[in-house]
Amino acid sequence: MTSPASVPAEPATPGLPSISSRSDGARSVPLVVVLAGGLSHERDVSLRSGRRVAEALRTTGLEVLLHDVDADLLPFLEKTRPDVVWPLLHGASGEDGSVRDVLDMVGLPYVGTGPRASRVVWNKPIAKSALLGAGIATPDYVTLPQSLFRDLGAQPVLDTILRRIGLPLVVKPTEGGSALGVTVVTRAEDLPRAMVECFAYGETALIERAVEGIELAVSVIEGADGPEALPSVEIVADGGYDYAARYVAGETEFFAPARLTADQAALVSDVAVRAHRALHLRHLSRTDLILDPDGTAHVLEVNVAPGMTEMSLLPQAVAASGHDLATLYRAVIDRALTAVR
């Protein structure tokens, strides 16, 4: 297992002057550019997220433009000089910090976590190591590259995995989201296929112990008093919370708020806020975890760009909290703008 590690704090993000200090005087309301799409496996989810957020922000009086991540993006940003950018990109480039690095270089403020912390969270084993260093529980795991199976022989490595982790276990790519390439393995004979499916989405596999319990997602939003957890969302999916279960209506049952006792709800909220702080996240995040029968909350992963589709978990949490979704999104934008004034 990787040894615990600390996450470096994000430096201050350079940004443009506020609207009130603009010299041209032409813009009466803030201009927001929502980035959606990209070329990852999660392009469709990103587009759906981007459209919904853009529509919600427009109802609050903001001027909002939606743009893909393509060769026209940098010229477009230089020409329009938006007041803030909201990257709603899932998968590579959107969550690995690279697009955020570019936004920093061109001097545009944006919603969400900075590039350094994004890179930590994007790599699941590194994020798990940081969580362990902060005293936050996460399932036991090993990380193995595809080349190791070729060098040492597949079967001896598979046998060692089974002895070390045991069954049931979960195989997933070290980078990526939306449960792509993720398999829950309950029988030894299914492990080889799970590894093949995992390596279709990345060169390195994270193999972790499967934890039984209540599957939950806890979204965190930063307010004036710091990060606060929204009501947790309970996920009940037959056959696992895979890609179809996440984005096909009727495949999964959600309970928002989750069916927890007051003590359990307080526990998972505390864990999500602690994870948000430990990983130096900014503005918003979502922590996925399992609450086991013994009362331990095991963090599976943390997301710097939570989905915002009609079935996504953060919007469900907002609804359960009684807040208006568009108003909350506007507050997130205002917070990003305030940071550069």
Automatic annotation (TrEMBL):
Pfam families: Dala_Dala_lig_C, Dala_Dala_lig_N. SUPFAM superfamilies: Glutathione synthetase ATP-binding domain-like, PreATP-grasp domain. It is found in: Cytoplasm. It comes from the Bacteria. Keywords: ATP-binding, Cell shape, Cell wall biogenesis/degradation, Cytoplasm, Ligase, Nucleotide-binding, Peptidoglycan synthesis. Residues 1-24 are annotated as: Disordered. HAMAP family: Dala_Dala_lig. Belongs to the D-alanine--D-alanine ligase family. This is D-alanine--D-alanine ligase. It comes from Promicromonospora kroppenstedtii. The gene is ddl.
